Amino acid sequence: MSEVSPTTHLIVRGARQHNLKDVNLVLPKNKLVVFTGVSGSGKSSMAHDTIYAEGQRRYVESLSSYARQFLGVMDKPDVDQIEGLSPAILIDQKQGSHNPRSTVGTVTEIYDYLRLLFARIGHPHCPKCGREIVPQDINQIYKAVVELATAHPEFTKQKGVRLLILAPVVKNQKGEFKDLFNSLYKQGVAEARVDGKILSTQTTLSLFKNNRHQIEAVIDKLVIGQVGGVIEYEKQRLIDSLEQAIKISDGEVIVSVVSDPSLSFPEDPKEMEDHLFSQKLACPVDNISIPEIEPRYFSFNAPEGACSECTGLGTKMVLDTESIISPSLSLLEGAIIPLASQFETRTWFAKLILAVMESADLQGNQPLSLMTSEQKKILFQGAGNKVFSIKGINRHGQSTTWKSQYEGLAKEFERRYEESTSDSFKEEVEKYLIKKTCPVCNGARLKPEVLAVHVDNHSISEITSWSIENTIKFFSGLTEKLTPSEIQISEPITKEIQDRSNFLASVGLEYLTLGRESGTLSGGELQRIRLASQIGSRLTGVLYVLDEPTIGLHQRDNEKLIRTLRDLVNLGNSLIVVEHDRQTIESADYLVEFGPKAGDHGGEITFEGSVSDINKSNCLTGQYLSGKKDIVAKKHRYEGDNQGKIRLTGCTHHNLKSIDVEFPLNKFIAVTGVSGSGKSSLVVETLFESLAQNLNPLHRKQSVEFETITIPDAVKRVSLIDQSPIGKTPRRVQR
Q1: Which of 88, 89, 279, 388 has the largest count of CB atoms under 10 Å?
Q2: pLDDT band at 69; cut points 50, 70, 90
Q3: Last residue within a domain, chosen from 582, 603, 626
């Protein structure tokens, strides 16, 4: 080894963290260093809990006391001295966010660049007819407003169609906007609609600055009607009002149809139907206008872009009609399981259900197994607009009648789940709900008008549904299909997208899609995503600590990962990798083996040096690398009783191609294949989920795509053992 100094080496003296036995260690900087040894020998205690912990502690202590209160100072590891320590970054296998709004695209920031790309060079189309949307002039807007009024049901009535001409000035923005009302008043605007309520521009009302607000200037109030079959309205006044609104709002005008029951124009209308018209983007056939395209327009986490049905989640919790009822019981006996107590005490809602089903010829004392398909539809989907009168005694002891429509159990339970703020109540209701793809956006998370914006005839949702590999191919050939101005605008954006996608491919994640939820990724996949992000940051002089980055990675992709680790070293960084994989060990610049055994019998360094040196040594790892020792798999010959097979047919979950598969009982079964080939989709998300739904009545059901499952009688229960942590409470210990 060359001369040892803190500028060229990391020097550790007297490390006693956990089971380490007063260990001294000298590691070269700007090299790929691998810690190996049997499990529990002290590798992570040295890498994570000593070297990284001290590096992080020193960095946090260098910050101000104000910053430290947010970050928290790590405990000082049990070590005498560490010299030559660089700023440390830990890339471990911790579970990522379980927030359903977090995806591979948002974690890697590729989706942010996609939003910017579509906002700058996207071509908007009409979500109804598919025509490309073009700007409208004032005459087209005027004609569209008149057509809107004449087609409205109120047009033939005496009061005519009452219109509010509005100029949108604040769109879903936070603030108090104190000066805005004064500015509008000086422009001759007497009223403004603030969050749906008409107010004077001279109002002293103060808006809550942390809430998002919608503010429109009220330009005019008009009525379009007919007299003797002839349309009657003030044409020039309408055109002038539209022009003024467009001038104030920079090209947009909202025409709101007032449907309040009063004959005269109400001062503060409550029932309004808004129609947006734009000089920038509008379809002349369907009279659909969309606002100016901005990056937030493509965000499923913003109200401007998120699907209104699923609020940008792509999925919706819907009622599981099979688990909520007990068909052998009647309504009065508690057939609707979560409402059994309500039928016992005869609440108003229970009386409503009884009245509805009696009107459909199902009595309260008849078992639900006798329900016809039409009666079942009424119970779950509702009775339409029909109003039912329910008689009873109110809380004051007086006889009263309650009139109500019945919307069905499905809508009732979904509404209760969405509106409740109680975690315990939501947990109880979740037993009877199942997560399914949103029926409106079909899992795309965005509004139809957002999905109608295309780049090279593809929507942003289509691109996020592709694998990283296909995304790279698409963007590598995109330039040939763009105009010169679009190329100039998109070049820096597409470069970032391609670079980040290539980094993901370089760590063996080319099979992932940008739209995949972060919560469905394994610990190894999340670790490699963070590793790819670090490559993209191009930092130098950093100490990276990695915990088994090859875990869950097929041997075919190991070489890609090792090249990535080499790239980090070549940038001028030091890497400490805790690893058992042979290929990674043999690629190391410097090796350290901990041992000789685990726990109290470990915590010592049994070897340190190069790969060629370890092959000549008698340490445990060296003996296996040199071939002195070998692993011989001893196959158990006992066949066990033949108790049948679990058979699955038509599995199409994620990337499974309608496969049929059998799992024989009393066997040790291994499912293998390259990363992303569908192993977890089959075993965890299809086999386990389908077994749990059939064997465990309390299991929270997930939507899973398969045709049939055959379960032998010998199978009584199923358990899933995955990479989820057992818990973080300090009171939880292993005994």
Answers
A1: 88
A2: confident
A3: 626
